[in-house]
Amino acid sequence: xxxxxxxxxxxxxxxxxxxxxxxxxxxxxxxxxxxxxxxxxxxxxxxxxxxxxxxxxxxxxxxxxxxxxxxxxxxxxxxxxxxxxxxxxxxxxxxxxxxxxxxxxxxxxxxxxxxxxxxxxxxxxxxxxxxxxxxxxxxxxxxxxxxxxx
Length: 150
Known about the structure:
alpha+beta; Arc Repressor Mutant, subunit A; three-stranded mixed β-sheet; three-stranded antiparallel β-sheet; single chain; globular
């Protein structure tokens, strides 16, 4: 699998099998939507799946996304509006978070990420062992979107 992309549908099925999970229509629908959205809340995924005609509940989508994050196929992060957003890309990378629109964008800069990770992993934090590094840049749009008078 390429280090800078989410799992294809075939790779996803193999990952499910590796974790003794069945490739149910609901799990496959969740992954299809996550491949399109990249970063999404449970509500966003549920709404998009329902548009395809697959029968799902918000609770089942939440359970699927949470399970996939727990076993490391997906990642998750909390937004400033207290919503959990899931990330289809579980490889090491940084994020830019738009605090007004509550959206996440991947920042792929292997050199910078590696430099920060190596530097922080060498640091000692009394009473703690560093397990992972999560880098998130938080910002807001500098200009309001222009709305034309129609």
